[in-house]
Amino acid sequence: MIQFSKYQGLGNDFLILSISDQLYSKTIKALTPQKIIQLCDRRYGIGADGIILSLASNSTCDIRMKIYNSDGTEAEMCGNGIRCLVRYLYDNKLVGLQKELTVETLAGTIRTSINDDFTITVDMGRPVLIPSKIPTNLQINDEGIPSAVVKLDNEKHIIYSVGMGNPHLILYIKDINLVDVERWGRKLEFHSDFPLKTNVHFVQIKSRSKLDIKVWERGCGATLACGTGACACVVASKLLGYSDSNVLVHLPGGDLKIKWQDKDSNIFMTGPAQYIFSGNFTSPQISVN
After folding, report:
1. Which label site among 21, 73, 212, 259 has the fewest CB atoms less than 10 Å from its CB?
2. Of 11-25, 125-139, 164-178, 238-252, which gets the smallest average pLDDT?
3. Out of 78, 84, 220, 233, which one is annotated catalytic?
4. What's the burial of 8, exposed, middle or buried (CB within 10 Å: 0-12/13-18/19+)?
5. What is the model's pLDDT at position 52?
6. Is 78 labeled as catalytic in the residue annotation?
7. CA-to-CA distance for 68 and 53, rounded, in angstroms?
């Protein structure tokens, strides 16, 4: 029997499992892609956009995060997911009541802090603009951001790319309500210039301090929010001269506050994370006795 807690950040929901060292190997073996898909299925499973393992750090961090998309693939990082993990740790006093935590991820060490209103601020580090490190085959343009022209429904569009520990594709449009997120998102996720596939974001500029975004997440599909994606979109918008340094990003699941000064600065994301419910599921490969 494995216990889980379900948390959501702007409607981006995750099953969080706290795994001890002695159960780590068995848990990883049991969480096959097929099992992850089953657990995340909203009709035949518990339902989630992904699964997060809370693990002992291999370094000096307070905790290590391992995250899987709902299609069973492992992700490098997730902005909404890391806020959910931090709130879970704080709620369950697994790291005491300290409000500043460091999280080990495949994208590196992430620093976080819980605010008095229980929103969580995450130091997302510096964005990646070097194509090979995103990774993407797009070429850097005059504004210093990888870009290219693609054709969608016989119309040409400029796409941009920013790395936030994971790859992101950004496309600006005049009316976000007219976007076919399912069709365009699925096509762009598998764009040939992104060897590891990519998250896709459709952006409408509302003002220099506000962006509206719709999300297609790599390995998940259309979701209500994407924290790393919101950061990537602000970076692209600032470099292209569309936005200022402090931006309110509106996503279908709610709002994130993003702050980024320039290429030499880290980017900070602030947003909520909330507990939904807890439960347990069984796996024949794991015994906690």
Report:
1. 21
2. 11-25
3. 78
4. buried
5. 97
6. yes
7. 9
* Active-site residue, selected from the candidate residues 220, 226, 231, 233: 226
pLDDT tens-digit readout, 60-104 = 999 999 999 999 999 999 999 999 999 999 999 988 778 899 999
Residue 157: CB atoms within 10 A of its CB come to 15
Residue 226 annotated among the catalytic residues of the structure? yes
DSSP assignment string, the chain: -EEEEEEEETTEEEEEEE--HHHHHHHHHH--HHHHHHHH-TTTSS--SEEEEEE--SSSSSEEEEEEETTS-EES--HHHHHHHHHHHHHTTEEEE-SEEEEEETTEEEEEEE-TTS-EEEE--PPB--GGGTT--PEE-TTSSEEEEEEETTEEEEEEEEESSSEEEEEE-S-GGG--HHHHHHHHHT-TT-TT--EEEEEEEEETTEEEEEEEETTTEEES--HHHHHHHHHHHHHTTS--SEEEEEETTEEEEEE---TTS--EEEE--EEEEEEEE--TT----
| pLDDT tens, position by position, 178-216 | 999 999 999 999 999 999 999 999 999 999 999 999 999
Rg over alpha carbons for the chain, rounded to the nearest Å, is 19
Q: Which two tokens stand for residue 74?
A: 């492992």
Type of residue found at 159? I
Asked if 133 and 108 touch (Cβ cutoff 8 Å), the reply is no
Q: What pLDDT, on the 0 to 100 scale, is given for residue 185?
A: 97
Distance CA 135, CA 132 (A): 5
pLDDT of residue 287 exceeding 80: no
